[in-house]
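Quick note —
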Amino acid sequence: MRDATTASVLASVRRLEAVAFRAWPAEQAIYDGSWLIRLAKGHPSKRLNSLNPLDPGDRRDIAGRLARAAERFAAIGRPLTVRLTPLAPPELHAHLEGEGWERFDESIVMSADLAQAATDGIDQLPLRDTRRFVEARLAISGEPDSLCEALVSILDSIRPETGLFLLQSGERPTAVTLGVLDGGLIGLEQVAVAQDLRGQGLGTAVVQAALRWGQLHGARQGWLAVGADNAPACALYRKLGFAEVYRYAYYRERKRP
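Predicted structure written out below.
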């Protein structure tokens, strides 16, 4: 019998994975058993272009299923990327390691009880202009303007209620985040602060604004994913009451010399 603690953790992972998929939807979602293939031809996001195993017991025909998934990725001009969470079968992890796949970009999924979290920021009404939000996000992050249409399409395809939060200094965007309300949870996506203004409380302000909005609309728990190597952001979220739930990382085949 599975350990009760492990079962409880896996239940939390399953719930957060489900809301995360809805919060950041791919153009295509294809199932091979419990392995979910997510594809987005218009945007290079790893989360939108990855193979996501969702059952630790689904370990049949690993090599064959990877090969078939690789064909789907190749059809849109992308290499196969596998995203491993605690829901992935250990045998798949062992297979990738044994075949010399490269592990990269670990992320931490964190959550917070909003009754205990620091959500005492000022009330702020979210934007209704998706394009304005996306343009601000790209300006802050330094990502190319060519991603604008794809990002607008992604945000417009999110089915749960969303809140777009933007801080500005004059006409200059300084911080943004996207809040997604889903089943008593609010997820934070696209958090960004202008690089030369970091450490001045803007990240705290924009995150608190989104959490406060979520709480006022019935959210009881917040969640987010942050790069494991992003120490300042991890420290900020912990200060606001977030704690680690689980981690995930990506795998890709190593380039041959």
